[in-house]
Amino acid sequence: MSGTSITILATIGLVILAALVLFGASRRRDAHAALSRETVKKDRSVSPFLEAPASARDVERAAVLANRAPGTALEPVGETAPVPYVAPDPETIGVTRRQFFNRSMVAMMILGLSGFGGSVLAFLWPSLSGGFGSKVKVGKLEDLLTTMEQTRQPVYLAEARTWLSPYPKDAIPKAKKAYSGAVLTGMESGVVALYQKCVHLGCRVPFCATSQWFECGCHGSQYNRVGEKKGGPAPRGLDRFAVTVDGGVVTVDTGALVVGPPIGINTTGQEAEGPHCVNPAGGHH
To answer: Exposed, middle or buried: residue 5 (CB in 10 Å: 0-12, 13-18, 19+)?
Structure first.
Protein backbone atom coordinates (compact mmCIF):
# COMPACT_ATOMS: atom_id res chain seq x y z
CA MET A 1 0.00 0.00 0.00
CA SER A 2 1.39 3.42 -1.00
CA GLY A 3 1.75 6.40 1.29
CA THR A 4 -1.01 8.28 -0.56
CA SER A 5 -3.50 5.49 0.13
CA ILE A 6 -2.64 5.54 3.87
CA THR A 7 -3.16 9.30 3.99
CA ILE A 8 -6.58 9.04 2.30
CA LEU A 9 -7.72 6.29 4.70
CA ALA A 10 -6.56 8.26 7.74
CA THR A 11 -8.42 11.37 6.54
CA ILE A 12 -11.63 9.39 6.06
CA GLY A 13 -11.30 7.93 9.56
CA LEU A 14 -10.87 11.37 11.14
CA VAL A 15 -13.92 12.68 9.32
CA ILE A 16 -16.06 9.78 10.56
CA LEU A 17 -14.83 10.27 14.16
CA ALA A 18 -15.61 14.01 14.05
CA ALA A 19 -19.11 13.23 12.76
CA LEU A 20 -19.75 10.86 15.64
CA VAL A 21 -18.63 13.44 18.24
CA LEU A 22 -20.91 16.13 16.75
CA PHE A 23 -23.84 13.72 16.67
CA GLY A 24 -23.42 12.83 20.38
CA ALA A 25 -23.18 16.49 21.43
CA SER A 26 -26.33 17.40 19.57
CA ARG A 27 -28.23 14.54 21.22
CA ARG A 28 -27.27 15.80 24.73
CA ARG A 29 -28.41 19.36 23.85
CA ASP A 30 -31.71 18.01 22.56
CA ALA A 31 -32.31 16.00 25.76
CA HIS A 32 -31.54 19.02 27.96
CA ALA A 33 -33.81 21.24 25.88
CA ALA A 34 -36.61 18.73 26.27
CA LEU A 35 -36.75 19.49 30.01
CA SER A 36 -38.99 22.38 30.88
CA ARG A 37 -37.72 25.36 32.76
CA GLU A 38 -40.06 24.56 35.60
CA THR A 39 -38.60 21.09 36.01
CA VAL A 40 -35.05 22.42 36.09
CA LYS A 41 -36.09 25.04 38.66
CA LYS A 42 -37.66 22.41 40.92
CA ASP A 43 -34.58 20.24 40.72
CA ARG A 44 -32.40 23.12 41.88
CA SER A 45 -34.71 24.17 44.71
CA VAL A 46 -34.58 22.77 48.28
CA SER A 47 -37.10 20.11 49.20
CA PRO A 48 -39.87 21.41 51.52
CA PHE A 49 -39.47 18.25 53.58
CA LEU A 50 -35.87 19.07 54.54
CA GLU A 51 -34.58 21.85 56.73
CA ALA A 52 -32.62 24.55 55.01
CA PRO A 53 -28.91 23.71 55.39
CA ALA A 54 -27.01 26.07 57.64
CA SER A 55 -23.99 27.82 56.28
CA ALA A 56 -20.51 27.12 57.59
CA ARG A 57 -20.40 30.57 59.21
CA ASP A 58 -23.61 29.86 61.13
CA VAL A 59 -22.23 26.54 62.42
CA GLU A 60 -19.01 28.17 63.66
CA ARG A 61 -20.92 31.02 65.38
CA ALA A 62 -23.18 28.52 67.19
CA ALA A 63 -20.15 26.53 68.41
CA VAL A 64 -18.44 29.64 69.82
CA LEU A 65 -21.61 30.73 71.67
CA ALA A 66 -22.04 27.23 73.14
CA ASN A 67 -18.50 27.32 74.55
CA ARG A 68 -18.84 30.84 76.03
CA ALA A 69 -22.29 30.62 77.55
CA PRO A 70 -22.64 28.31 80.59
CA GLY A 71 -25.47 25.86 80.61
CA THR A 72 -28.59 26.88 82.44
CA ALA A 73 -30.34 23.50 82.55
CA LEU A 74 -30.68 22.02 86.04
CA GLU A 75 -29.98 18.37 86.72
CA PRO A 76 -33.07 16.70 88.20
CA VAL A 77 -32.83 15.46 91.78
CA GLY A 78 -32.33 11.70 92.00
CA GLU A 79 -33.33 9.25 94.71
CA THR A 80 -29.74 8.84 95.97
CA ALA A 81 -27.05 11.36 96.80
CA PRO A 82 -24.42 12.07 94.14
CA VAL A 83 -21.24 9.99 94.49
CA PRO A 84 -17.70 11.06 93.62
CA TYR A 85 -16.51 10.11 90.18
CA VAL A 86 -14.10 7.19 90.15
CA ALA A 87 -12.10 6.54 87.02
CA PRO A 88 -12.58 2.98 85.72
CA ASP A 89 -9.75 0.46 86.06
CA PRO A 90 -7.83 0.23 82.78
CA GLU A 91 -7.50 -3.54 83.33
CA THR A 92 -11.30 -3.80 83.44
CA ILE A 93 -11.84 -1.71 80.32
CA GLY A 94 -9.48 -3.76 78.19
CA VAL A 95 -5.90 -4.55 77.25
CA THR A 96 -3.87 -2.35 74.97
CA ARG A 97 -1.89 -3.77 72.10
CA ARG A 98 1.39 -3.14 73.94
CA GLN A 99 0.11 -4.92 77.05
CA PHE A 100 -1.06 -7.84 74.90
CA PHE A 101 2.36 -8.29 73.27
CA ASN A 102 4.21 -7.88 76.58
CA ARG A 103 2.05 -10.45 78.32
CA SER A 104 2.30 -12.81 75.35
CA MET A 105 6.10 -12.67 75.43
CA VAL A 106 6.16 -13.31 79.17
CA ALA A 107 3.75 -16.22 78.79
CA MET A 108 5.83 -17.76 75.99
CA MET A 109 8.99 -17.38 78.06
CA ILE A 110 7.36 -19.06 81.06
CA LEU A 111 6.04 -21.85 78.84
CA GLY A 112 9.47 -22.43 77.27
CA LEU A 113 11.25 -22.48 80.63
CA SER A 114 8.63 -24.87 82.01
CA GLY A 115 9.13 -27.27 79.12
CA PHE A 116 12.92 -27.09 79.45
CA GLY A 117 12.73 -27.64 83.20
CA GLY A 118 10.39 -30.60 82.75
CA SER A 119 12.75 -32.16 80.22
CA VAL A 120 15.71 -31.77 82.56
CA LEU A 121 13.81 -33.32 85.46
CA ALA A 122 12.63 -36.19 83.26
CA PHE A 123 16.21 -36.81 82.17
CA LEU A 124 17.64 -36.69 85.70
CA TRP A 125 14.80 -38.48 87.45
CA PRO A 126 15.49 -42.20 87.89
CA SER A 127 13.43 -44.50 85.72
CA LEU A 128 11.00 -46.50 87.83
CA SER A 129 8.90 -48.18 85.16
CA GLY A 130 11.52 -49.90 83.02
CA GLY A 131 14.89 -49.64 81.36
CA PHE A 132 18.38 -49.81 82.78
CA GLY A 133 18.49 -48.86 86.47
CA SER A 134 15.22 -50.60 87.28
CA LYS A 135 13.66 -54.06 87.19
CA VAL A 136 13.51 -55.23 83.59
CA LYS A 137 11.28 -58.06 82.44
CA VAL A 138 13.22 -59.89 79.73
CA GLY A 139 10.89 -62.70 78.69
CA LYS A 140 9.78 -66.21 79.50
CA LEU A 141 12.35 -68.49 81.09
CA GLU A 142 11.47 -71.44 78.87
CA ASP A 143 11.88 -69.42 75.66
CA LEU A 144 15.19 -67.94 76.80
CA LEU A 145 16.65 -71.32 77.74
CA THR A 146 15.54 -72.77 74.39
CA THR A 147 17.21 -69.94 72.49
CA MET A 148 20.47 -70.31 74.41
CA GLU A 149 20.48 -74.07 73.84
CA GLN A 150 19.89 -73.74 70.10
CA THR A 151 22.46 -71.00 69.53
CA ARG A 152 24.99 -72.31 72.09
CA GLN A 153 25.59 -68.80 73.41
CA PRO A 154 24.10 -66.40 75.98
CA VAL A 155 21.31 -63.96 75.11
CA TYR A 156 22.22 -60.27 75.08
CA LEU A 157 19.59 -58.03 76.69
CA ALA A 158 20.17 -54.52 75.35
CA GLU A 159 17.59 -52.88 77.62
CA ALA A 160 19.28 -54.31 80.72
CA ARG A 161 22.85 -54.06 79.28
CA THR A 162 23.23 -57.64 80.38
CA TRP A 163 24.25 -61.05 79.13
CA LEU A 164 21.79 -63.71 80.27
CA SER A 165 23.73 -66.99 80.41
CA PRO A 166 22.54 -70.53 81.25
CA TYR A 167 23.67 -72.00 84.57
CA PRO A 168 23.99 -75.82 84.77
CA LYS A 169 21.84 -77.51 87.40
CA ASP A 170 24.62 -79.92 88.39
CA ALA A 171 26.71 -76.95 89.58
CA ILE A 172 24.09 -75.70 92.06
CA PRO A 173 25.75 -77.37 95.12
CA LYS A 174 29.00 -75.49 94.45
CA ALA A 175 27.08 -72.30 93.67
CA LYS A 176 25.47 -72.34 97.11
CA LYS A 177 28.95 -72.10 98.66
CA ALA A 178 30.02 -69.12 96.54
CA TYR A 179 26.82 -67.15 95.92
CA SER A 180 23.76 -66.02 97.85
CA GLY A 181 20.59 -63.95 97.57
CA ALA A 182 18.75 -63.35 94.32
CA VAL A 183 21.85 -64.19 92.27
CA LEU A 184 21.74 -67.74 93.68
CA THR A 185 17.96 -67.83 93.17
CA GLY A 186 18.45 -67.09 89.48
CA MET A 187 21.11 -69.79 89.20
CA GLU A 188 18.73 -72.27 90.77
CA SER A 189 16.22 -71.30 88.05
CA GLY A 190 18.89 -71.99 85.41
CA VAL A 191 20.17 -68.51 84.46
CA VAL A 192 22.66 -65.86 85.56
CA ALA A 193 22.60 -62.18 84.53
CA LEU A 194 26.11 -60.76 83.83
CA TYR A 195 26.81 -57.04 83.46
CA GLN A 196 28.28 -56.30 80.03
CA LYS A 197 31.31 -54.32 81.30
CA CYS A 198 34.72 -55.84 82.02
CA VAL A 199 35.71 -55.35 85.66
CA HIS A 200 39.23 -54.36 84.58
CA LEU A 201 38.70 -51.02 82.79
CA GLY A 202 35.03 -51.10 81.80
CA CYS A 203 35.18 -52.26 78.17
CA ARG A 204 32.17 -54.12 76.84
CA VAL A 205 32.86 -57.84 76.88
CA PRO A 206 31.67 -59.93 73.90
CA PHE A 207 31.06 -63.67 73.93
CA CYS A 208 33.46 -65.88 71.97
CA ALA A 209 31.49 -68.61 70.19
CA THR A 210 34.53 -70.86 69.66
CA SER A 211 35.90 -70.91 73.21
CA GLN A 212 32.47 -70.46 74.83
CA TRP A 213 33.97 -67.83 77.13
CA PHE A 214 33.52 -64.09 77.56
CA GLU A 215 36.71 -62.47 76.26
CA CYS A 216 37.52 -58.75 76.51
CA GLY A 217 39.23 -57.36 73.44
CA CYS A 218 40.76 -54.39 75.30
CA HIS A 219 43.28 -56.15 77.58
CA GLY A 220 42.56 -59.86 77.25
CA SER A 221 40.51 -60.59 80.38
CA GLN A 222 38.65 -63.89 80.08
CA TYR A 223 35.64 -65.30 81.91
CA ASN A 224 33.83 -68.62 81.63
CA ARG A 225 30.20 -68.93 80.52
CA VAL A 226 28.86 -67.94 83.96
CA GLY A 227 31.21 -64.95 84.30
CA GLU A 228 33.89 -66.44 86.61
CA LYS A 229 37.39 -65.08 85.95
CA LYS A 230 39.68 -67.41 83.92
CA GLY A 231 42.52 -65.22 82.71
CA GLY A 232 43.87 -61.74 82.02
CA PRO A 233 44.25 -58.69 84.27
CA ALA A 234 40.66 -58.68 85.63
CA PRO A 235 40.67 -58.54 89.48
CA ARG A 236 37.52 -60.72 89.81
CA GLY A 237 34.71 -62.29 87.86
CA LEU A 238 32.08 -60.30 85.96
CA ASP A 239 29.69 -58.25 88.06
CA ARG A 240 26.09 -59.41 87.91
CA PHE A 241 22.47 -58.58 88.68
CA ALA A 242 19.85 -60.29 90.80
CA VAL A 243 17.41 -62.46 88.85
CA THR A 244 13.89 -63.49 89.83
CA VAL A 245 11.44 -65.75 88.03
CA ASP A 246 7.74 -65.12 88.65
CA GLY A 247 5.10 -66.96 86.68
CA GLY A 248 7.74 -68.19 84.27
CA VAL A 249 8.83 -64.61 83.43
CA VAL A 250 12.45 -63.59 84.08
CA THR A 251 13.09 -60.19 85.69
CA VAL A 252 16.57 -58.68 85.97
CA ASP A 253 17.05 -56.06 88.69
CA THR A 254 19.54 -53.62 87.15
CA GLY A 255 19.08 -51.17 90.03
CA ALA A 256 21.65 -52.93 92.25
CA LEU A 257 24.96 -54.27 90.94
CA VAL A 258 26.35 -57.37 92.67
CA VAL A 259 30.16 -57.55 92.74
CA GLY A 260 31.58 -60.50 90.79
CA PRO A 261 33.11 -63.57 92.46
CA PRO A 262 36.78 -63.42 93.54
CA ILE A 263 39.58 -65.04 91.56
CA GLY A 264 39.65 -68.81 92.00
CA ILE A 265 35.88 -69.35 92.03
CA ASN A 266 35.00 -71.94 89.37
CA THR A 267 31.66 -73.54 90.19
CA THR A 268 31.04 -75.04 86.73
CA GLY A 269 34.56 -76.31 85.94
CA GLN A 270 34.09 -75.18 82.34
CA GLU A 271 37.28 -74.90 80.31
CA ALA A 272 37.74 -73.39 76.88
CA GLU A 273 35.89 -75.48 74.32
CA GLY A 274 37.77 -74.18 71.28
CA PRO A 275 40.15 -71.47 70.02
CA HIS A 276 40.16 -68.17 71.89
CA CYS A 277 38.94 -65.01 70.16
CA VAL A 278 41.37 -62.91 72.29
CA ASN A 279 44.72 -63.96 73.77
CA PRO A 280 45.29 -63.26 77.48
CA ALA A 281 47.89 -60.57 76.66
CA GLY A 282 45.29 -58.59 74.74
CA GLY A 283 44.52 -58.41 71.05
CA HIS A 284 42.54 -60.64 68.73
CA HIS A 285 43.76 -63.85 67.16
So the answer is: exposed
